[in-house]
């Protein structure tokens, strides 16, 4: 089957990016990463891309301070690489450009380490869940819209965190499940189609 051309956007460590690369190597994710785009010249994700000979595009937020301009630079790269799916994997920047969001409507997905709408918009949702004393948290994979962490949900999984002693432990517990779930959702995207009915996402296998 044809592999779907994807872009991955990551700002930091990129372990979800690595999980997708590993699943592709195992033949479990029908995607080809055409480009890694990052806003952080120091991101560890860059080394992960280089070790696989995947092109890296660094759009430094300090060099392009205007938010709209920054997003349009991203759009230019996505167009250039001809991607059909944009995977945000620890991309810690809000996409603000309507032009970018409209051009890639229902083609940008994000992973968030909570059961949305819990801890919506947080950049440390796992620590928030720990501080709240939550016994369960989880992860959500959703389409990206102008509603931050509020787009239609493709996938959710609850994770028990009652034994965790710190926020970091919660993060370590949830990310293991993220690594399993994200490549599977990318694979589903490649193999079928997602229909959006109101706020609900219905998966239709090809
Ligand atoms: C992941 O836990 C991801 O869910 C989270 O950042 C981490 C990135 O880890 N994303 C957000 O919090 C988005 N608001 P990684 O760089 O090792 O994939």
Question: What can you see in these coordinates?
Answer:
This protein has 206 residues and is an alpha/beta fold. It has one domain: 3-Layer(aba) Sandwich (Rossmann fold), CATH 3.40.50.170. The protein is built from 6 helices and 9 strands. Helix 4 links the parallel strand 4 and strand 5. Helix 1 packs across helix 6 and helix 5 crosses helix 6. The structure holds glycinamide ribonucleotide (GAR). Glycinamide ribonucleotide binds next to helix 1, strand 5 and helix 6. The site of glycinamide ribonucleotide (GAR) has 15 residues, from helix 1, strand 5 and helix 6.
Task: Examine the secondary-structure arrangement and name the CATH architecture.
Answer: 3-Layer(aba) Sandwich
Bound molecules: glycinamide ribonucleotide
- Widest sheet: strand order? 3-2-1-4-5-6-7
Task: Please identify the structural class as seen in this structure.
Answer: alpha/beta
SS elements, strand count: 9
Q: Tally the helices: what do you get?
A: 6
Task: Write the CATH homologous superfamily.
Answer: Formyl transferase, N-terminal domain
The topology string of helices and strands comes to EHEHEHEHEHEEHEE
- In terms of per-residue confidence, which ranges show pLDDT below 50 for 5 or more consecutive residues? none
Number of domains as seen in the coordinates: 1
Query: What percent of residues adopt helix (DSSP H or I)?
Result: 25-40%
Q: Supply the CATH class.
A: Alpha Beta
Task: Please outline the major beta sheet.
Answer: 7 strands, mixed
- From the spread of the alpha carbons, the general shape counts as globular
